[in-house]
Every structure is written in structure tokens, then in C-alpha cells.
Amino acid sequence: MNRFFRHAIAIVAAGSMGLIAACSSNNSGNSASGSADTKINACKLVSAAQAGKILGATITVRAIDSSAAGPHAASMCNYAGQTIGGGFMLIAAHIGYSDAAAEVASQKKQEASDVPPTLPKPSFSDIQGLGDAAYLYKTPGSFQLHVLAHGDAIVINRNTAASAKAVDQAKKIAEIALSNLK
């Protein structure tokens, strides 16, 4: 029988609170990257040099301990730049979906309902040609690129406006991360 689980982690970054709505899933067990208990190391998906080349900045990589969230918690890694918004957070988890489109629809619905009524509602836009399915979650001043591939999910969180350049950078980072999930 399938189990439903969701991970959400609140992160304090640069003096402001940001909500990372990571993986909500219908966990089906196996995928190309292993069983539901497979832990992905987000810090090993993209090197500091690769991230720095894409962002045009020196990047420092630091794992974020998510063990308090339980054994199925997503792996999180902070790629810090020299300025606020100059880096990103990478979240990765095995979620074991069987239908990427249905999983994306479920995630969007859950993420929209998780936003407190005092905050602006996010906007969503689908991204073609990246993984099994991908979409942007945008709020004023920040965005997240969610990508599903091989039963896994990655989220790239940027504390900067979703400009064409920033989104393109996130896509390039996601492509590198996806190539290391295989």
C-alpha cells in the first residue's frame, strides 16, 4: 500500500523567513535511484566551482542538518554567495512518484494552501524539457525551481526575483544536479 508523506522546512536566511515547501508525495517505493529510504546528498549534486561558474561568484557549500525532520527528510545544502540572493539552497529527496504530472499538480495544490493568509499567494509556471516534470514557484523577491526526475525531486531556492537570468541560472544548476542523480 502506498504511503503519503510530505516534508516542509522553514529556513531563516539573511534575516528573513522563507518557506521551502519540498516534497509531497505518493511514495511508490522504487525508482532508478533506489528505494524510498535512499538518502540523496544534496551537497554532492553540484560542486562549488560549478555553481560559482554559473552564478559568476565565489560559492561556499555547507550542508544543512535536516535529521530532526525524520529519516525520510530531504537533504539540504546551502550554496552561499557573497551577497544576499547571490547563492541558492538545493534540496533533494527520493519521493518515488509513478506519475510526474499528477505529482506536480499535487505539490502545487499543497504549496498554495500552505501559504499563510497574510502573505501573497505564489504563482506557478511549468518548465518544459527539464527532468520528468518541472515548475517555478514564484513569490515577490524569491523563487523555487522544482524538478522531478527518476523518482527523485530537487528544489532550487533562490532569494532573488525570478528574472530571466536568475531562472536560467537555476535551470543550469538543475541540469547539473540531475546529471548526478543518475
Question: Can you characterise this structure?
Answer:
It is a single chain. By secondary structure, the protein is α+β, with helices and mostly antiparallel strands. It is globular, with a radius of gyration of 15 Å. Helix 1 runs antiparallel to helix 3. Strand 1 and strand 2 form a beta hairpin. It is built from 3 helices and 9 strands. The chain has a single domain, classed as 3-Layer(aba) Sandwich (Protein Transport Mog1p, Chain A), CATH 3.40.1000. A 7-stranded antiparallel β-sheet has the order 3-4-5-9-8-7-6, with helices on both faces. It has a two-stranded antiparallel ribbon with strand order 1-2. The N terminus is likely disordered.
List the helices and strands and how they pair.
Elements: E1 3-13, E2 16-27, H1 48-55, E3 60-64, E4 75-80, E5 88-94, H2 100-114, E6 123-127, E7 133-139, E8 142-149, E9 152-158, H3 164-181
Antiparallel strand pairs: 1-2, 3-4, 4-5, 5-9, 6-7, 7-8, 8-9
Summarize the structure.
The chain is α+β, with helices and mostly antiparallel strands. Helices cover 23% and strands 37% of the residues. It has one domain (3-28, 38-181): Protein Transport Mog1p, Chain A.
Please state the oligomeric state of the protein chains shown: single chain
Residue-averaged pLDDT: 80
Strand order of the largest sheet: 3-4-5-9-8-7-6
Task: Give the total of domains.
Answer: 1
**What's the total helix number?**
3
Radius of gyration: 15 Å
Keywords, separated by commas or semicolons:
182 residues; alpha+beta; Protein Transport Mog1p, Chain A; seven-stranded antiparallel sheet; two-stranded antiparallel sheet; 3 helices; 23% helix; globular; disordered N terminus
